[in-house]
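HUMAN: Now follow token order:
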Amino acid sequence: MHSSNRRSARSLLLAVFAGLPLAACAASEPPPAVAPPPAAPATGAPVAPAAPAAQAASAPNVAEEANAPEPKKPNLNHRHPLVALFLASVDSLDMTAQQKAAIDGVKADLLMHAEVPKEPRRTLEADVLAAVNAGKFDQPKIDADMRAMASAVAATQPAMQDDLNHLHRALNPEQRKKLVEIIRGKAKEMHAHGMAMHEHGHAHAAHDAKSGEHEHQDPLAKLGEELSLTPEQSTKIRAKVEALVNAQQAAMKNKMAAAQKQMEAVATAFITEKFDAKKLGIGTQAPELVKTVVTERVQFVQAVLPELTPEQRSKFAAHIQAHNAEID
């Protein structure tokens, strides 16, 4: 049992560190550069053609745009797993050029509408970092931040549901059937992979407990090195994280079962002509999913924080900010 809990705790830590600190909070972005308007020509002076001027203004940026890295796509698995499956599967279809152009537009809209709005994420991040530096959480403020995030996600649902309806209309019956087959296959593979990882993790946990090896894979051990945790601090923090895992596992299983049931209902409806994402309630669970993920990450920070010295708290805050910059 100890090995199982230990591996489960490690899995939670990996998930937390993959999205640390809280909800993939965005860093502040500079406003886009805006070219000044052209000066009005003197009376009677000839006006230069607009097209060449625009081309000349944009010419110096062509090389930069060509070499610019592709922007990161948001990870939708934690809040819109069903939408993520549609996006990951639709490109496998054989489509006409006209269909592909339409589908590409729908995909862009889905990614935009399914993204968590930045402002409530930034507010939550700032309040959590302030709590870490102060060594004390203002729980009412954090709770209000999480409610604001959930409300912001809920506000995006109608547009996202419209996008899925557009996707449905852009495909013919055979393509819809094929897409559902692909989605079901991917979902089955993901489930099997998750079970295999779980069993593999138990084997490693047992081995670690006996030999002490593979500790380099433990993110908590890495955090301990970075914050210079004492053995006593590490032991206390690990025990708290294991308690969190035990409290969260049952609820997670129930939510996964509900999500699988909804996915099958949506897949069945998508094949028909009467598919309606709004009536099916696609995305309505997203606010609660976001709130759950954020709550678990806040709880992790709250588990670690009381065991830290003021100097370690500053390092912990810096660590959180560094991960924000990496994953944003």
Observations:
- Residues 237 and 304 are 6 Å apart (CA to CA).
- The chain has one domain: 2-21+74-204+216-327.
- The chain is about 70% helix and 0% strand.
